[in-house]
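Re: [help] complex structure
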Amino acid sequence: MNDHHTNAGEAPMSYLDYTVGEPIADTRAPAGPIEQRWDRRRFEAKLVNPANRRKHRVIVVGTGLAGGAAGATLAEQGYHVVQFCFQDSPRRAHSIAAQGGINAAKNYRNDGDSIRRLFYDTVKGGDFRARESNVHRLAQVSVEIIDQCVAQGVPFAREYGGLLDTRSFGGVQVSRTFYARGQTGQQLLLGAYQALSRQIAAGNVELHARTEMLDLIVVDGRARGIVARDLVTGEITSHLADAVVLATGGYGNVFYLSTNAKNSNATAIWRAHRRGAYFANPCFTQIHPTCIPRSGDHQSKLTLMSESLRNDGRIWVPKAKGDTRPPGQIPEDERDYYLERIYPAFGNLVPRDIASRAAKVVCDEGRGVGPGGQGVYLDFADAIARLGRAAVEAKYGNLFEMYQRITAEDPYTVPMRIYPAIHYTMGGLWVDYDLQTTVPGLFAIGEANFSDHGANRLGASALMQGLADGYFVLPPTLNDYLGRTRLDPVPADHPELAEVEAEVTDRLHLILAVDGDRTPDSFHRELGELLWDNCGMARDEAGLRHALARIPELRAEFWRRIKVPGTGAELNQALEKANRLVDYFELAELMCLDALHRSESCGGHFRTESATPDGEAARRDEEFSYAAAWEYTGDAPVLHKEELLFEHVHPTQRSYA
Amino acid sequence: MNLTLRIWRQQGPDTPGEMTEYRVSGISEDMSFLEMLDTLNEELILRGDRPVAFDHDCREGICGACGMVINGQAHGPERTTTCQLHMRHFEDGDTIDVEPWRAGAFPVVRDLVVDRSALDRIIGSGGYITAPTGSAPEAHATAVPKEAADLAFEHAECIGCGACVAACPNGSAMLFTAAKVVHLNVLPQGAPERASRVRNMVGAMDAEGFGGCTNTGECATACPKGIPLTGIARLNREFLRS
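Output below.
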């Protein structure tokens, strides 16, 4: 009967027997000059008569920057939006935690920035594994986002003349990052949330808070709804619509320890994957270089320290191995400012993947600092001497406070200790230029898709992409879909609804029925460590094969030993965790397979077998200049390659020296 | 460290609750308060007992999901969110009382989880600037004096956790409402809706059953983001001039 029997672990799926299927191509981006493609696409898109829009129901899952912006905008245009979030309020989506800023090619600084340069930087920063058409559109739309947010009252940092302030951010040499102290994500999200709240109050958006999507309903080959669980009552219900938009964020929590919010999870995109949406580049995960190191086994999550700190902080470790002196007692000439030494042009501002790997290298050499030697210093002594304490406090005060609260150390007098942690996932559901997945009528926006960041995301680009997708890209492309597609109503007694609901319910019952002796968190920690060790900052064939062998064993153990008290018909947070874990096991396997098959290094994906003589990532364009879109089969997956063509930015080995 | 916890357990909004005592041991001072509760919950699960339900998400002090009354204080002894409260602020052998937010407008959902959707409805009544997507003028078309931008930001930092309501003897949401009214009303972009915003939001606040403000000031003391009490004075001025 149901495919959850494969979960029960008797015959683990042989992911290694994957096959290569037909290539896949983006057929939506118009041809012609890249600067005109988005205009052309919008012009060629079908429109829906304003009077007809209210007859269309659109489901939006997630209320972060992408989902919040999309829900508000679609409702403003007249669609009837049905929106879901698992939090108690749409304002709590994890976009709220983004600290540093949002990029836009405004060139307010007159420092040589342009749409072309933002496009160029993003394609290069992504190590030539993103689609040019998409990235160019992102750069174009970036300028409109700032206008929109200012109109909403987002309190960006301003100069004394009343104009907007900007700063530079990792991996670029222009000052194009707009910010609101260290809480840019919060302020942008509140802007979207307020616009969404206005539409909820007006009755144009029907909000289901504390409700989690657990499956996708596909009827006649089109996405027509979702099955969701009310997290308070446990009730499983189907919701129907003419299109479904997933804005459910990334899957970094598969690692257990990450900078993601505890409840961010992969279930919505994974269930959509199982219903036919291809999953692209799952191994492209971003490890952020500046996080607070873990303090012990009790650690439940990792906290990011904004990358903006690298503008003024200097990163160093002792020159000597095993030097345990307090940092203040290590003289200047016995310190190794390794980023400034290896990358003199960019220094402490190299992209995230490079900064993270460099930290790992010095720690692996035995020069790491703090407990377990898993840390490097981020030192503000020079900045305080140069700018004064007050200026440093004005820029980074809240971050310093947060650091001190967590570590009980004062970063004004003792250098911060930082270490890389999982932060963002560039991979996600494969989408075309219209942000539509391989399931017609199913769209994926924001971090949930794979589209714009290639193998590495530049700082301050996630907020840009989330809002670009939600405010400006999805609304016209969704119009086009609804304008072109004849959709018959799906009757409430359609057998597919009952079937999917039964599958969802059965799975929860199976979890509850095991009544074993291990908690969901204990399995999640073990899976996370396995992934961090073998599919983290550095990957090699032996480690990935080990993980691919171990994950099915761990999954089988889960189905023998998981323990979840209580029932499914109530608020049951342990059940929520266990249910998400079932999807993490499968996703983890696909990540490892993707990482194994891509035997090149690129961006955040570093295969130790593919490095330049000086240890940098070595891409192999002739073999791997493609996005890997994986098709779910229930057995070994099928790989569909989307060839990436670079007509405007010529692929070169990235150099930040 | 070893601790005794007395935690409010309540099955649902219509069932009576009670304080239940638990002991936890081996607590590290580097743990956050929520990680300490995680430790307890792991033990409860293995025993087959219902773990303690509490809201939490980002665990870095910004999403506003977490919040409990710890030894009678909203978010506990430090001025921060519960997730950023660390066990180094407690002593070995302490007995700690843990209760949900207590306010008429926040019904208990289960254990330490309460329903704060009334705050969302206050925002929906006017806590926005009407600016449909695509309609915005160029960002630099209107300069905003730095003082106004900074004042707006100071109030926009509110995370909507509800600690102000929980700390207030009247269960008032004045500080929460003030934070949004001041944020938007001091900006030139917010000026056209200035009067209707404050009237509608204050009306919604009253309709949701929040108490009145008697200038006790507990709200600003409990606020993890330091929203200033002067915000309430500004709210009152905005209301009077509307």
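The domain at 3-110 of chain B is CATH 3.10.20.30 (Ubiquitin-like (UB roll)).
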